[in-house]
Specification:
three-stranded mixed β-sheet, 3 helices
């Protein structure tokens, strides 16, 4: 699970210089191993439902997690509840974006 979270921290919203974890876009990440295969399910959101970069970010999340040697399959589900707010960002992200 640590390797998956490390990979998630390498995914950036192309319009914001902060990774998706620190932005608070990752709502859930579950890693399941059965029959020697590891699958990962990520539930994430976007800063806005109409974000044009959504498919790009979603694909980047999937591709980065597939780089983890032990992961066989990944599903990335976009969810809209709860709605994302700036308060979901880490303090480091708010500092990076000048919001503190």
């Amino acid at each position: 699970q640590d390797a998956v979270w490390s990979q998630l921290k390498t995914v950036f919203d192309p319009e914001i210089p902060v990774n998706v974890v620190d932005l608070g876009l990752i709502y859930d990440c579950s890693v399941n191993t059965a029959d020697g295969k590891t699958s990962v399910l990520v539930k994430m959101t976007l800063t806005a439902p109409g974000c044009g970069m959504g498919p790009t970010i979603q694909a980047d999340v999937e591709n980065k997690i597939l780089c983890v040697e032990t992961v066989n399959e990944v599903a990335v589900e976009l969810v809209w509840e709860p709605q994302w707010t700036r308060e979901m960002m880490t303090e480091a992200a708010r500092l990076e974006l000048g919001m503190l």
